[in-house]
Records
---
Amino acid sequence: MIFNLKIGFRALIFFASSYSLALTDLQYTFRVRLQEAQPIVNVELAFRADHSRRTVLQAPECAFSESKLSNQIRSVKLISGRHISCQVGQWIITHDPNQDIRLSYELVQDWPVQSYKRHRAYIQKNLIKFCAACALVTPVYFNPHMKITFQFAGLPHNWFSRSSFGDSRTHMYQGNPQALRNSFIIMGNTEQSRILNCAVGAQNIQVIINGKSEMPDAEIGEVIKKIVTCQRAFFNDHSFPFYTVLLVCVPPLDQTNSASWQSAGTCFHNAIDLFCTQNTPLSAFKKLCAHEFFHAWNGNKINSSFDEQNFWFSEGFTEYYALVTALRSGLFSFTDFIAMCHELCIAYYTSRVINAPNAKISKEFWQTDEINRLAYNRGFIFALLVNFLIKQQSKNNCSLDNLMKDLFAHTQKTGEKFSARLFNQLASKYISPGVLAQLEKYIERGETFEFIPELLGPHVSFRIGNLGVFDLGFDFEQLKSKCVITQLNQASNAYKAGLRNGQKVRGWSLCFDATKECIINLLDRDIRFFPQKPPFTQIPEYYLAQHADKKSAQAWWMS
């Protein structure tokens, strides 16, 4: 997931004249108070106002899927200036012309740590993290020549401080104004976190791991190193002056199911924030890293993240390249790659909102999980389609890779933001007459993609299958509490596979997904079945046949 924040308040314009603040135009000072029952971060903001007598600042209220972010802020104090009015989403300061302004507020954690709200401020005794979008009062607009300074004051000697701009006690930045709103701040106790240095070319990527994980630290570091090396080589872009990865590992959030795991991440400016429950499998972590790191380009450097209409691209194409770059970096076998492509195809074709128009996704992306996932899956299928069309028309001399590299080069050179119009314009170089018709049909109107047998390459087999809706066939709550089969439906696949009421169970593996096989461990044998029932939906099935030329099949994806 990438940073997203809507902006609509009056611009705050700063002038680049010299003044009393210490050679900086916008300065944040962070002071941590750990002695209290609930740790607090005191944030002080300093800048010089313009010649007007009224300045409007953007205050955190809504970002990502979070709302009421102002609940994290208390004790607002205007240190210099005439008056401050704190309204929802904006703070209004009255002042003298060109006055030095200083204000402070307290940032607190307003949620129970057991629930783990990733995008709200995380302020604990040994680790503190927050992003500017959700925690900092920021200018709506300012000149790119302005200098931004983060200062960390009074931290214990055994604490580290990291941000999107550095790893010392003072971090400075000058450049794209969006970097401030997309910045990430971390502070923590070095004795409670493990810090790895992953060498990628001439740069060390600092990986901070907080909490226990079943994945060894060495494997975590190796995954990050491989995916970053591959993706930077893909774009031939190594212009990252600094990079930090934070991985927070917590106990399983669902205490009733020890097999249940969760993972998520967010890409910020020169930083990645990752979250995993302790039992997250390594395969899921690999895909998570491949997805979030690719957002450094698709969403940040290829600027597409601020318009929900383009989430089919920023999330769907990133999903595509998460799998492709994980394959190319050696993190996935080709068999795993095909299986994951197949899973995403199934998720798309079985979605209950498959034909929702793009306008509905734009409106409800942050509100419902089904709409959210549709943007990912629809964009993924569209990326497969565009790749197929380019390879088909170029006789395998070009692929989607060429179009993505063109897009990156174009946006870096011109500063133009991503749009469907720009995508079609650049795609026309490889696909005649472009992809405008497909964009309108599949993305905007939400029509269902037709099945294409060779979508995953000429050496990958295809067939049409039927998939029913999820149906476990018995009472799961009784299984959890008493380890016994009850209320078994005799028409279910579970019954047909051999389960009977009253059978004692010693273990199980259930994914609550109609496409995933269930395994029930009885005292004397194992029962396997797919948890589904009518009505059935036709789905495309991609797989590697036993006689397949696997070397050629994989080579089709390597460039």
---
Amino acid sequence: MLGPLKQQVAAGLAATIHELFDVEHEPIVEVPPRRDLGDLAFPGALQLARVLKRAPRGIAEEIAAAYQPPPEVERVEIAGAGYLNLFLARSAVAARLLAEPVLPPAAADRGKVVVEHTNINPNKAAHIGHLRNAVLGDVLVRTLRSLGYRVEVQNYIDDTGVQLADVVVGFLDLRGQALAEVAALPEPFDYLCWDLYSEVGRWYEEDEGRKKHRRETLHELEVGHGERAEMGRLVARRVVGRHLGTMRRLGVDYDLLTHESDVLGESFFEDAFARLKESGAVHLEEDGKNEGCWVMPLSESEEFAGMEDPDKVIVRSDGTVTYVGKDIAYQCWKFGLLGRDFHYRRWEEEDVWQTAGAAYASDEHPEFGGADKVINVIDARQSYLQKIVRAGLEALGHTEEAAQSIHFAYEMVSLSAGTARALGYLDDDEDAEGKSLEMSGRKGIGVKADDLLDQLTAKAREKAGEQNAALDEPELDALATDIATAALRYLMTKATTTRVIAFDLDEALEFTGDTGPYLQYSAARISSIRRRLGDEGLADDVTADDAAALPAEVWSDDLWDLVLGVADAAGAVEKAGETLELSLIARTAFDLAQKFNSIYRAHPIMHEEDESLRAVRLATIRVFQRGLAELADLLGIPLPERM
């Protein structure tokens, strides 16, 4: 609420200044560096002094005398050469935070945003790096929705690409398994494909001529006909089903699964490609290393200047389409620029839709695409390709849409040496101090997402069981799942997107420090306080009216700092949404939890005999509890009653 209050104060000051001096001024309301200087400050009198040719302190005195502040402002003081320092009415602010959402809903619709995230190749199990993509994408979606955007969540299924083709080759050509045999293979099917994918890589290395099977498979996947295409559909469907199950464990869901085969099958690419040729954005190379390829020349673009080979192949000489070519067409559709649409059907019986062939299409489906802004959550290694997608839109004359094509880039995830050793990727006697282990799907090196979640849950269950001996088995299982979810989601979000994460199991599960379980522990501590208050026959809650009636003298500065921090949380969320730096949300939640835990022992509630002091302390922790709950919801972190 501090942001809207600043706007309200600024508007009132602007009106006062206009009435007093007949001057248009846009006040900037700041937060002063020290508590004794107030909660908000207005330095505008110093700027007005140059316009009015008067001493700034005299101007400040006139403004202070005429200004009618909102109820949340207790008093206005003049300091220094002409600062207006505003002191908030602490009880009124606490009451408002107890009566209204801490993160208020947006006043107006801010437009439609398509967020594309996760995008795991449907050729093997999800791994730890995919979890960062999915978590960041999901937190972004939750944040944008809280800020008033209509968000559509899409998960792109690359079911015509090289990775899937290699698994098809593995089943058909390496292992000689027919469609019915593969359909009958047991779960976890994505784990079987994980091993097969790396096996195929080694098989190619033994004889480069075997890659002819890959080329044949890629062609069939693109045209959608033949045994290889049928095998590709089977593999992709089974693997995607496993991926969705993995992401459900973390509370991640989607509105639409977009199949790359449908981008081709519905002629989206043909349409976009024809437009690219017509605009002169691509041309056919007649000689050189790209002979027979359709190429987008980018050497004259400032964004690609200085690159050794800035030209990008869109269609290969064998007629197959590159990833970036299909993505340009897909990006055009997201903005509603193609004048055509997919067919749709539900994914099995779940509340998620997928693109489909006309034979399976449903007439009753939500409206997809047509975005005002598109945010693609893809790791930083794909920055070059994302720039080409924007360049493709610009070449087609869609400059505004190109500007609204946002690449949400992030760095990769590795394993800490300790975790790599615990999971069997390093020998016990191997010296790996200070090192981390990077993933490689082609080499089969990597932690499967479900294995990691299983490990986290098992460790969380062990820790939770030590402190909750009275819980029955289902309750303990549920608590362990909540703790594991918080541990992983927080660790993936708290690091800035420019930082590589070295994932450490033990660090993520700490109940103290900068972790998700620490946030949960703080919330559970308040639940415990309230239970004990109820057991003692004391009030375990405080209403907004109760808080508003608290006398000013019961508010100590440390209690007020926590309340004011909660009041300012919405500003951090707004900034996170604007900058795509979601670590700001995690940082805000952690800072508030630290403040709460620092005052917890200094301001006991249970044994406080003074009713006003007990009430102000209860009001403070309830404000914090509400604020933490709303921030945790954005982070996708459950807050159990007990830890």
